[in-house]
Amino acid sequence: MERPNLAAAIDAAAESLVGVLDSAVARHRLAVSPTQLRVLSLLSSRPETNINGLAELLDVVPSSASRLCDRLEAIGLVRREADPRDRREVRLTPTAAAEVLLGEVRSRRHDAVRAVLERMPARVQQDLLCALLAFGQAATAQPPDSSARSA
């Protein structure tokens, strides 16, 4: 019997997870597109972001990031504020309404994942938790210096 390819299994599981997360949000009519939701999430987790920083995070040109923010500002989800350290810089800040929206989306996603987990045996859930924690640690660990190995 051929051993399953772990990387392929993780890739397939990641696709399944994205599908679960996307469907949890798609069932509810949101006032924003998936891209706008991503922008709000990025800005919420990076409070000192400006247009250039957002463009870099999104891998788009600054004018595209600015237009995205124009639309979010028009519907009351983003506020532009002068940076107190440099008045020439403008920070992008999610409004309270944006934070409420992000909280609702997060809650829907957690409920959807929880529903999938409930279909799994408790032992497998615990194994998955341990594996995900270990994967997260390995993903954020510094890789060994490759030059030390070649010496």
From TrEMBL:
Residues 3-138 form the HTH marR-type domain. It comes from the Bacteria. One of its GO terms (molecular function) is DNA-binding transcription factor activity. Keywords: DNA-binding, Transcription, Transcription regulation. SMART domains: HTH_ARSR, HTH_MARR. InterPro entries: ArsR-like_HTH, HTH_ArsR_DNA-bd_dom, HTH_MarR-typ, MarR/SlyA-like, Tscrpt_reg_MarR-type_CS, WH-like_DNA-bd_sf, WH_DNA-bd_sf. Pfam families: MarR (PF01047). This is MarR family transcriptional regulator. One of its GO terms (biological process) is response to stress.
